[in-house]
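Can you give me the bound-state structure? Components:
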Amino acid sequence: MQELKRVIESHLGEVMAGQGLDSQSWIQMLVAAREPAQGDIALPCFSFAKVLKQSPVEIAERLCTEIETYMSQNSDLERTLLWVKAVNGYLNFMADPSWIADQVFPEGCSDDAGRGKPSGHKVLIEHTSANPNGPFHVGRARNAILGDTLVRLHRLIGHEVMAEYYVDDMGKQVGILSWALDNLEHDDVERILSQAGIEAADQRWANKQDHQRVRWYQAANILKSDDSEIDAKVGELVRLSEEGDESVLESFRTAYQPVLDGMLETLSRLGIEYDTFTEESRFVIDGSVSEIMSKLEDSPLHDTAENGAHYLELESKGVKGKSTRFYFRRGDGSSLYATRDIAYHQWKWNQCDRLINVLGEDHKLQSMQVSIALQEVGSKAPEVVFYAFIKLPEGKMSTRRANVVFMDDLLDEAETRALEAVKQLRGSEMDEKRMQEIATAVATSAVRFNIINVAPEKGFTFRWEEALNFEGDSAPFLMYSHTRACAIRRRIIQDGHDIDALIEQGLEEQVWNQLPDSPSIVALLRALGRHNDALAGAVNSHRPHLFAGQLLHLASSFNGFYRDHPVFKDGEVSLLNLLLCEVSRRYLATGCKALGIIPIEEM
RNA sequence: GGGCGAUUAGGGUAGUCUGGAUAUCCUUCCGGCUUUCGGAGCCGGAGACGUGGGUUCGAAUCCUGCAUCGCCCGCCA
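Here's the bound-state model for the whole set.
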């Protein structure tokens, strides 16, 4: 409805000025109407009462009369607005449904429907970047799903996007994993874990290395907690890795790579892929970390601790708490994770003009420190999207404590349930293989949607019933609406019609100029009319759930239309209804893809 | 101790930045649509802004006190 706002603004300046209202005072008051019946745009007139010394009700009524007069003399505005009404001190504007259709057609029936034009912007989105120490679990999923959805949304709106995974290949977690694999036998691991009450690994994942090796990681963590010698050995390995010791880094890689591969296999089931992987160690090896450290030493915020460690004092930058120091070099001269992160950010900036990080809320302080440090070395700060954690009803998820729901298990369970549902509906007519394909699409889509449909900053408790919900506000609901539109298409083609010719004919005749008096058609047109605004809003604010909401609304409006208005009846095709069906189908398909929902044609 | 975020019907959730009418949608419960382009759907009804102040013609929205929950305040990653 941004376009409607623009039209109103551009036409009514004179009328409003004639009533003593300059543009500043009224344009910013224009809001979206609350109830559909109240119109599309509303102008509350309460704030004008003081200036004009009149009651809001009177003002609204007078403005209404003036605008109606203006409208009758201006064909542009008359085409745009169906009516203007004064109600209880509000001035309500209702867009003409045919005008809304003007905004939607003919683009809505083209292959670029619901897609932005190439912007020329290069956006690098770093997400997931989970430590490769165990299988991908639901707690980590919010990062990956949010990140991948942002990647898809930015691509849809026309940006060139690089999806990037930062591989932490030299930290303590990988160090523990590596030590465990070198020093523990299979029987040791299982004995330690069973003594600690951790149950045996699921045999289904016997051949998946992430599920296997995490046992070593967990066992080593248990041993380490009451054997300081192990801690020291791991610490030594980590120290060597930080110095760029090639043989240590190599043994780390041997330890984590199969784990990472397993994680990526899981992510791939969710439709999540990356363009680039960057290892943390590269910034130590190529010298950029030392460069950063010497640059930071020139900062006015720089200071040195008693043992020679270096830090930035960030109190003047608004950092508060017990410690306002940001350490970037240890007493022994080595770098820290955050120091490497600064080098990494500089490297990322070389490849893009927009940089987006997806991070858990636990990284807020760290991220602010890195941003300040980046500015100190002359770089820009990234845009950061934070999200709250997904927890279990029993508490926080943790790979170390084996308190997790593995994504592989969730996806399998979702597939099983989806297959049941498909069999129940289509079992008599469809072959097994096809039903399995549909179940896979439904399962991954549903899992993604349940996570993306909630605002990132809201805490999220994982519950099996909700994750596996296929009704109501869910991916299958969107997918189902889409299959209906596809089914209509199939039916028309099957009946021997040239559907593309019919669409072309409808567009040429501009059949939307003669709309039937139908609430469900108007509702659908309004849903279509705001589709692109919703996409832009979601992308610009990094809030994909806003676009998910739009798609639900669109699907629901389409379902209402579907119920009331047959496209194909008694061998005849309604051109108007065909166009509406076609644009809905296209918007749903591209929109679903942008959320990682697979818009299959039958289910 | 300090910082950041959250709190909306029985459950989940949108709206809060930028104050405006009857607070969104799902689930649940109740009542309809006996499926003629696919009912994983559609239509109707019931049910909520944590709490005390303040600002305002008007507060879920802004300010402030309190409560509850989460995250953070490491020469770890």
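A couple of observations. Residues 2-95 of chain A form a domain with the Gyrase A; domain 2 fold (CATH 3.30.1360.70). Chain A has a mean pLDDT of 94.
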